[in-house]
Amino acid sequence: MSYEFRKPPKKDGVPSGWRGIGCILILLLPVLSYGIALFLLENVPAVGRFFSDATPWLWGTVPIPPLLLKLTSLNGLWSWLSHQNNLMLELFLAVIILIFLSGFISMIYAFMYRAVAPSKYGPTDAPPPKRRGKRKKYNR
């Protein structure tokens, strides 16, 4: 048995609150972006027209290669995919929306962090020297 005093290790990780918020965002953002994609495709006809002109291969059912159809254990999945109309378009639009939502949330986080960030210098650091005027050129 040792009776010497040990200092507790420093916690250099992310606070648990931020980890919880990140976990919620990882789960919430894809579901939210898929919901927004469905809403846009159903209620905004301009979005559907744009994608029908730009990417006609995304419309319709999901093409399944014949080799995969031979896997009889996945017949339930294949039948579900064959009944889904425009699933590839919905997922494609959801990924685009997910990228924009993630960027928007990152910008909000950056502004919040900038507003409440710790000081650039510690108590023992000195700020960098301020320079005034031009540098003098010495002739040798």
- Give the terminus-to-terminus CA distance: 71 Å
What is the gyration radius calculated from CA atoms?
Answer: 28 Å
| Biggest sheet overview | none
Beta-strand percentage? under 5%
Q: Which class best fits the helix and strand makeup?
A: mainly alpha
Task: Give a structural overview.
With 140 residues, the protein is mainly α. The protein has a domain at 17-66 and 78-116. 58% of the residues lie in helices and 0% in strands. The protein has helices at 16-43, 45-54, 66-69, 75-83, 87-116. Helix 1 (16-43) packs across helix 5 (87-116). The protein is elongated, with a radius of gyration of 28 Å. The mean pLDDT is 84.
SSE map:
Layout: H1 16-43, H2 45-54, H3 66-69, H4 75-83, H5 87-116
Features:
single chain, 140 residues, mainly alpha, 0% strand, elongated
Give the gist of this structure.
With 140 residues, this protein is mainly α. The chain is built from five helices and no strands.
